[in-house]
Structure formats: C-alpha cells, structure tokens
Amino acid sequence: MLTQERKAYLLDVLQREKRVVAKTVSRKLGLSEDTIRRDLRELAAEGLLQRVHGGALPASPAMGDFTQRTQVAPDSKAAIGRRAALMVRSGQVVFLDGGTTAVQVARHLPADLRATVVTHSPSVAVELAKHPCVAVEIIGGRLFKHSVVAMGASATTAITGIRADMFFLGVTGVHPEAGLTTGDAEEAALKRLLISQAAETIVLASQEKLGAASPFLVAPIQAADTLVVESDVPDAVVEPYRRLGLTIVTA
Q1: CATH of 66-250, one of 3.10.350.10, 3.40.1130.10, 3.40.50.360, 3.40.50.1360
Q2: Which of 79, 171, 211, 226 is the most buried (most CB within 10 A)?
Q3: How far is CA 218 from CA 22, 144, 166, 184, 231, in A?
Q4: Which superkingdom heads the taxonomic lineage of this protein's source (predicted)?
C-alpha cells in the first residue's frame, strides 16, 4: 500500500470511528506500528488529526485565530451563547472566557440582569459595555493576539483574588478521554486557574469541538460540571459525557 493510500485509509477510519488506534490498524493492514505512527505524525503536521497515546483523534477545526473562528458555525455559537446566558442569575459573579462563543454569551445576557462579569477578553468587555445593568471587571495583562485575551503574570495575580459563582469556559477540544484541550500551553494554564477559582464550570461546546482534541490539556473532562451543546447533537455523542456525571444543557 502506497503512503498516500495509507493516509487516505487512516483519515477514513478517523472520520468513521472518530479515532485511530495504531495497533489495530497495523494488524489490519499487515504493517508495522512504526509505519502507522509515521503516517500519523505527518498527518498531524498537516493539521488533519491530533496524535494521542496509541493513535489519533480528530483535530479541532476551532484551532484558527479569533478572526477565523468567527466564521466557524456562527449560528450554533449564537444558539449556545443565548442558552448559556439564561443560566446567569442576578447577584452572581461570573467568569466569562475569551472566544467567539463567549462573545455570544455576553451579547445575549438578559437586559434586566444585575450581575458582575469578570473577563480577560477585551471583545467580551466591549460587548458588555452596551449592557445597562451588568458590572464588568476587566482582567489585564499581555495581549495574546491569537485569541484576543489578556495573559501573563498580572492576569494570573488578578484571577487568584476572585471567587466566582460560575465560569463559562471556551476550549477547542472536548473529549471524554482526552479531556478539555486548547492550542496554547499558557492559555491552557490560565483556563485551568479560572476553573479552580469558580464554584461551577460550564463548557460552551459547539458541535465541531465535541470528540476533537488539541495539543494542550486544560483539565480532565470531570473538571466541568455542565456542557452546553446544540439541540441537534445526537444522543450517542453526548451520552459518554452524561455517564461521567456532566449535566447536558441543549441550546
């Protein structure tokens, strides 16, 4: 089997089964695991999958920069943002992550809501400047231009001084085994800190992120309390998360 034929086969398996197990494929094709692992490395370098121990998972299509991500599933993100916004109660202190779906949460907060939103996202803060009753606390620091969020030592220091009722978390990958993942190590660490400072973590999980993985672990899936997903996500997709104890909220 030629290299391109092997790679096409691997991508087909990934599409059908949502994972590739190198040992299984090598036995089926009568090839060495080293050959399969080399093919997976090359496909990962092309951004076509995410390598994990023993094989590969789908790469998240949400790995582009902020501008590119605005073009990915905008209707789904609006629906998720609208539903998530209804979860906030008056008097609460809420961490709102950066990202395109988080902007939709800010956009859809009820006009009569009186709460405090803490965010390290200038985009979210600007959106909330229009809200008549929500107080906004902006976390400052070095601007990470890829995601348009503040990061660094000053952001970390500010976050450790706040205890929030809930954290609306944005990630690029949500997987029952690979966990909550994103594309930058420092950003993953900041999200992990936000999780630790919130009583409840709610993941904004548009469909392209479910079952996908990115290079850097934010936290195991059990660190989340709730997934907000689209109403048309099949039960078979969300059932593994439900079995792990997460609450599934449909938009």
Answers
A1: 3.40.50.1360
A2: 171
A3: 25, 17, 17, 10, 25
A4: Bacteria
Local confidence pLDDT in tens for the 251 residues of the chain: 788 888 898 999 998 888 899 999 989 898 899 999 999 999 988 888 889 888 999 887 766 655 655 556 678 899 999 999 999 999 999 999 999 999 999 999 999 999 999 999 999 999 999 999 999 999 999 999 988 999 999 999 999 999 999 999 999 999 999 999 999 999 999 999 999 999 999 999 998 899 999 999 999 999 999 999 999 999 999 999 999 999 999 99
pTM of the model: 0.84
Report the run of H or E that residue 103 belongs to, with start and end. helix 100-107
**C-alpha–C-alpha distance, residues 118 and 193, integer Å:** 14
Residue ranges, comma separated, of all CATH 3.40.50.1360 domains in the chain are: 66-250
Measured CA to CA, the distance from residue 87 to residue 68 in angstroms comes to 28
